[in-house]
Write a structure and sequence with these properties.
Elements lengths: L1 E5 L3 H9 L5 E3 L2 H7 L5 H11 L4 E4 L5 H14 L3 E6 L2 H12 L4 E6 L2 H9 L4 E4 L1 H6 L4 H14 L5 E4 L5 H9 L4 E4 L1 H8 L2 H17 L4
Parallel strand pairs: 1-2, 1-8, 2-3, 3-4, 4-5, 5-6, 6-7, 7-8
Helix pairs in contact: 1-3, 4-5, 6-8
The chain binds SN-glycerol-3-phosphate.
């Protein structure tokens, strides 16, 4: 399963990328707004694309199809790594078809059901982003939706990649992998929680103490 970092923070992106932990980046307007300051979204996306050799999702903010297509073209012109993110609305799917016809990759976001995901795949989405945590928040089972999407896509041999999003903890990541998500996007805090285990820390501490007691170098 590919791992993407869900942030527009270049320091976090650099750290995870240099450690070889990530395959790409996802952003959304809220994440951009957090880091933008006086910088233009274009410059932020360009810096991210120069840093990471993988897909970088950049979201449109228009709500009409024509506006989404025009913004999508501008975003795709920034760098070849850009994947244009559109919302799962009727206009979003119209825009998805047009962008795909122009060979621009599209990530259809704000997906909350397998039937929505089916429509996005038929519109030519490269990625579908089901929001696991936000489904859990309203009393649904987010992972169950990811599993249903997997079943539908496999049944009809649809090539859209399932990008599990809104993941809030390592268990969401494990469960996404177990039900066959192609990618998972995680905020930095969740990414580093995947690495940590108290037994790893304790084991390392005792190995180092034993070696120090031996008093020799390598
Ligand atoms: O970027 C989309 C998604 O991952 C947002 O997650 O935590 O705001 O529901 P969250």
């Amino acid at each position: 399963m590919k791992i993407f970092l869900d942030t527009a923070d270049l320091n976090e992106i650099r750290r995870a990328n240099e450690a070889g932990l990530i395959d790409g980046i996802t952003t959304n307007p809220s994440l951009l707004a957090k880091v933008a300051g006086d910088r233009s979204p274009r410059d932020i996306f360009l810096d991210i694309c120069r840093e990471v050799d993988g897909p970088v999702s950049a979201e449109v903010v228009a709500i009409d199809a024509e506006g989404m297509v025009s913004e999508g073209r501008k975003l795709a012109d920034i760098h070849e790594n850009i994947v244009v993110k559109v919302p799962l609305t009727e206009n979003g799917l119209r825009a998805c078809r047009t962008l795909r016809a122009n060979e621009i990759r599209v990530n259809v976001t704000l997906c909350f059901s397998a039937v929505q995901a089916l429509l996005a795949a038929k519109a030519g989405a490269s990625y579908i982003s089901p929001f696991v945590g936000r489904l859990d928040d309203v009393g649904h089972d987010g992972i169950e939706i990811v599993s249903e999407i997997r079943e539908v896509y496999d049944e009809y041999e649809l090539e859209t990649e399932i990008l599990a999003a809104s993941l809030r903890h390592p268990k969401h990541v494990l469960e996404s992998a177990l039900v066959g998500a192609d990618c998972a996007t995680l905020p930095p805090g969740v990414l580093y929680k995947l690495l940590r285990h108290p037994l790893t820390d304790a084991g390392l501490e005792s190995f180092l103490a034993d070696w120090k007691a031996l008093g020799k170098g390598l």
